[in-house]
Design brief:
Number of helices: 6
CATH architecture of the largest domain: 2-Layer Sandwich
Order of helices and strands: HEEHEEHEEHHH
Largest sheet: 6 strands, mixed
Distance between the termini: 59 Å
Shape: elongated
Low-confidence stretches: 1-8
CATH class of the largest domain: Alpha Beta
Number of domains: 2
CATH superfamily of the largest domain: SUI1-like domain
Mean pLDDT: 86
CATH topology of the largest domain: Translation Initiation Factor Eif1
Strand order of the largest sheet: 3-4-2-1-5-6
Helix content: 40-55%
Radius of gyration: 19 Å
Structural class: alpha+beta
Number of strands: 6
Strand content: 15-25%
Length: about 190
């Protein structure tokens, strides 16, 4: 009886038809598994809590390179939920994302040509291809720090100018460690 129950709970072709939105967001949300420079967070919108949970289970069981997958704790407008998938930030991320979405297409009966992605805080949409992902997404942790730590510095400067507490903690890497040692803050 237990095996029959498990068999009935697995997703089959078409089970998520019209439930998964065709827009993927990359690095819009912070990682819960580690430093954002080391972890790439992808998110997609799914209609309903149960289909979202089913998709998370499908993703977690299907890919050994997925660090974590989770459903948003609350409902978005219209009854949608976000599904978050965390991947190690490497040059393999474009291939991994396309592989995950290609497998999801079997569940949604969509085509890859229907899918678009947005990166970080940009509103620009791109076609979901390995080539475009490799071009747009920052795949190197050091490059990620170089690009986005400047943004945080600007935010900290604005907070300071406004008289607000600046609570940003510097990332731990060779450069910041050498600065801490030089300043006697170890």
């Amino acid at each position: 009886m237990l095996n029959n129950k498990l068999l009935n709970e697995n997703l089959e072709a078409g089970d998520l038809k019209r439930l998964v939105h065709t827009e993927l967001h990359i690095d819009e949300y912070k990682s819960k598994m580690g430093d954002d420079a080391d972890v790439c967070v992808i998110s997609l919108k799914v209609a309903g809590k149960e289909p979202s949970s089913d998709l998370v289970s499908f993703i977690e069981k299907g890919y050994d390179y997925v660090l974590d997958a989770d459903v948003s704790s609350g409902e978005k407008e219209g009854g949608d939920y976000l599904v978050f998938v965390e991947l190690e930030r490497t040059s393999d991320v474009p291939k991994q994302i396309v592989e995950i979405i290609t497998d999801i297409l079997n569940l949604t009966e969509q085509t890859i040509d229907e899918w678009r992605f947005k990166y970080h805080k940009s509103s620009t949409e791109y076609p979901l291809t390995e080539e475009k992902l490799a071009e747009v997404v920052v795949l190197d942790p050091e490059e990620y720090h170089a690009q986005y730590d400047k943004e945080q510095d600007e935010i900290d400067a604005l907070k300071s100018a406004a008289g607000l507490d600046v609570d940003t903690v510097a990332p731990v890497n060779d450069f910041t460690e050498s600065l801490r040692v030089a300043a006697g803050i170890k």
